Amino acid sequence: MEINQLQIKIGERIRVLRESKGITQQNLAAICNFEKANLSRLEAGRTNPTISTLYKISQALEVSISDLLDVESYN
Length: 75
Fold this sequence. Notes:
Number of strands: 0
Order of helices and strands: HHHHH
CATH topology: 434 Repressor (Amino-terminal Domain)
CATH superfamily: lambda repressor-like DNA-binding domains
Radius of gyration: 11 Å
Number of helices: 5
Helix content: 55-70%
CATH class: Mainly Alpha
CATH architecture: Orthogonal Bundle
Number of domains: 1
Largest sheet: none
Distance between the termini: 14 Å
């Protein structure tokens, strides 16, 4: 899997988890102290998230970082 594909899959995974919990992009961004535009880029796969970014998102969504990175079983 190429880096760009991986970024897109991680972004999709974050979006699916966020939506499954009924959280808007705006609310998740606020909880994580991000700009909504940055979260939007992350979910679209246009940015490479840092470990600390993934940690903040995982805490806000009450999932593990590994759940965010579970792109092999997610389609």
